[in-house]
Amino acid sequence: MTAPDHDPLYRLEKLCRDYGAHRALGPLDLAIHEGERVALIGPSGCGKSTLMRLLAGLVAPSGGQILFRGQLLGAHDIRAYRRHFGYVIQSGGLFPHLTASQNVVLMARQAGWSRQKIAARLDELAQLVHLEPDQLARYPVELSGGQRQRVSLMRA
Predict the structure, then answer these.
(1) What is the pLDDT of residues 34-55, one digit of tens each?
(2) Which spans of this chain does the record mark as coiled coil (predicted)?
(3) CB atoms within 10 A of CB 58
């Protein structure tokens, strides 16, 4: 695949993350363009989750930099930035006291979406991942592992 002609959405330059004396990631150079799909594949401990935490702004790099839309990631309003960034953590991260649908619409409610817009998006996502309305009414503990993963994908 050839790289698009426009500037990347993300540019990682010599990105590193250390935890004490242990290098968890890097140095890594990577460009990700808008609309591009990227899969992180590798053995346990190779830095996939660390990279996602760095991109989400949950941890800071030990070295190098992350540019988002041409600006250092730290130059952005991190709360506003995170509203446009979703990813699924390994265990799914669903809140056990919320139903599946409440987990999915959490950020949409936070963002002030109308009830109609939330309902339409919830229905669209449920169809994409093949979950029925009765499954969305259940709590995470009442869902199978695969169903919990699909709810996590919907929320992301």
Answers:
(1) 988 888 887 777 888 889 889 9
(2) none
(3) 12
Q: Give the DSSP letter of residue 60.
A: -
Alpha-carbon gap, residue 83 to 21, rounded angstroms: 33
- Whether pTM > 0.70 for this model: the answer is no
92-107 confidence digits (pLDDT tens): 688 999 999 999 999 8
Domain architecture of the chain: domains with CATH: 10-82 (3.40.50.300), 100-155 (no CATH)
Tokens of 105: 């619409």
Cβ 12 vs Cβ 30: under 8 Å: yes
Which residue from 56, 54, 59, 8 is spatially nearest to 28, judged by alpha carbons? 54
What is the rounded distance in angstroms from the CA atom of residue 144 to the CA atom of residue 92? 12
